[in-house]
Amino acid sequence: MKEISKTQWNRYKNSDEGKKAIELFGSMLSPDTTYDDMYELARKYDPAFFANLGKKDRENIMFVLGEFEKVICQKHVESPEDYEALYLDILECLAQPTEDEIIKLDDLPQSSFKYLLSDNLFLSIILYVYYPEFFMPYLFVMQFLYLKRFAEKYDIELPPIPKRSDYLGRCKYYLELCKIFVDFSNINSLRAHELCAYIYDYELPVIKEELENEDKSEMPEYPRQAWILVGNYGEAEKDMKYGFWQANEFTEKGDLMLFYEKSPVKKMNAIWIAQEKGIVDPFFFYYSNTYIGNKISIPDNQAISFADFKNSEYFKNRDKKGNFVSKNFQDVSGWPVTTDDYKEIKRMLNEKGFDVGVLPCLYEPTKIGDFQIELENDVSEKLLIPLLEQMGWKNYIDFKREVEFHAGRGKTGFSSDKRPDFCLHISEKNGDIEARVIIEVKKYLKNDKEIHDNFIQGRSYAKWGNAQTLVLCDEKKILVYQRDNNYSFTENKFIKFSWNDMETNEKYNELKKLLL
Questions:
Q1: Beta strands 288-297 and 279-280: pairing type?
Q2: Using an 8 Å Cβ cutoff, are 360 and 339 in contact?
Q3: Which among 170, 317, 497, 502 could disulfide-bond with 282, CB atoms 3.0 to 4.6 Å apart, if both were Cys?
Q4: What does the alpha-carbon distance between residue 494 and residue 472 come to, in Å, rounded to a whole number?
Q5: C-alpha to C-alpha distance for 64 and 78, rounded to whole angstroms
Q6: Lowest mean pLDDT among 16-20, 278-282, 482-486
Q7: Buried/exposed code over 419-432 (b: 16+ C-beta within 10 A; e: otherwise)
Q8: What is the pLDDT of residue 51?
Q9: d(CA 141, CA 211)
């Protein structure tokens, strides 16, 4: 866990903006704090959560805050060790199905905690008001991406996120985060309200700006995948152009989101484009999400109705696995849409008179010349090796497969049966094998987790080989990481190429220069 920059902190703390934020979070600890004050604090720093809430929602939140405070006032904390027990007692109390009998926490069904997830935002604020020495306002609901970036920035290891159906575990995740932030505040000698100001008022805007700048890249030429979204637009969502929505965690930026509006509409009447990768958020009710935009509306008389889907010969004969029509669109939001599914949907829209020419085409499977990539070894044999040879490097001389590094210079504990897929620019120094470039090959890195896992593995090889460059590649992309001034690799800093890029001199030469 890294320490914060004292210079930056002091500059912020003494600025007008910093003083105002520190005072705001400090004022929450006053006995005079109102529910309106708490609501406005949350709305200021977690705007995504409030983006589509209406007047009735605010009234419900005020009621919930009152109920939470009643429960907290019945509890008492005498020592720091009691904080965790306090939180679990509150969960147990709030999750009781009836007032007739008290059921122990671990005996309550998981469904009892389902609706406490999104309410944790307000519970966390009340807990902060009463016990700021341990609890902090959790204002990352629907903003978990920013928390992940903050953790990366300060070398904080976030605990594994519980499974979707583990609602109690997801509620208890808040406790684990509180422990982390207590450690962070102790290391940096920050008081509770200073910690909140630093994270939410100082770092959060910086992180948002960093991500926005990174996200200015154009959408992919073709969407990689299409997904079904099922739901109803809320009061504030009917005319939205950009919004936060439940999505599959494996959603990629640029993917198509085919929106089926539930009862009473029962029609597929819009196609959206994913603006971000899908991400798991433990306190988001639907677990995983993305932002959607670039809406393509389908007029009501051209939208595909439930009856149209049911009468489709294609969907009647389609196998049941992944068939959202045979499931009557129940619990299928986030299901993948196959290429053939999408073709049938376009056919149905065209039959109704909708101009399907405005709809994006899905990315076709990778084909290079007369061959198709089917196995991981195809990526090596048909893509990578020919490219390296074309760039002028000889197989078995300039680059080799599965080079075993010697455990020299005190490098004990290295497992020789786990070798880099490829090493480029190999040399020997003082009896140790080194390589300037380490390359890891996979058939397809389908999501952030797989990229992360292979980055961690590749980085360890790069350390052993004293490499300057790490490359991850699959059938679609080439990711190039380079050591920074601190002689380390940064996971979110890479240069991305596609294999089709290698057909242009500019991209080809750019990659070759990086591999020199």
A1: antiparallel
A2: no
A3: 170
A4: 10
A5: 26
A6: 482-486
A7: bbbbbbbbeeeeeb
A8: 77
A9: 17
Split at pLDDT 50, 70, 90, the class of 370 is low
- Helix (H/G/I), strand (E/B), else coil: 133: coil
Token representation of residue 77: 């904390």
Strands 267-274 and 304-305: antiparallel
Show the CA angle centred on residue 247, arms to residues 241 and 248, nearest 5°. Answer: 150
The whole-model pTM stands at: 0.69
HSE toward the beta carbon, residue 309, CA cutoff 13 A: 19
- C-alpha span between 228 and 270 (Å, rounded): 11
CB of 195 closer than 8 Å to CB of 184: yes
**Token representation of residue 166:** 């583990």
Choose among 382, 385, 394, 424: nearest CA to 514: 424
Please give the distance of CA 449 from its chain centroid, rounded to a whole number. Answer: 9
Res 217: pLDDT: 61
Amino acid at position 26, single letter: G
Three-state secondary-structure class, residue 1: coil
Candidates 302, 316, 239, 241; CA nearest to 269 is: 302
DSSP class of residue 395 equals: B
Please name the helix (run of DSSP H) or strand (run of DSSP E) that holds residue 77, with its range, or none: none
The packing angle between helices 35-45 and 16-27, to 10°, is 140
Render the burial of 380-396: b for 16+ CB within 10 Å, e for the rest.
Answer: bebbbbebbeebebeee
Percentage of the chain lying above the pLDDT 70 cut: 93
Length of the chain: 516
- Report CA dihedral (332, 334, 338, 340) to the nearest 10 degrees: 60
CA distance 476 to 497: 9
How many Å separate Cα 68 from the centre of its chain? Answer: 30
Question: Tens of pLDDT along 21-35?
Answer: 999 999 999 989 999
Mean pLDDT in the chain? 89
pLDDT tens per residue, range 290-349: 989 999 999 999 999 999 999 999 999 999 989 999 999 999 999 999 889 999 999 999
C-beta separation of 476 from 379 below 8 A: no
Cis? peptide before 264, omega within 30° of 0 = yes
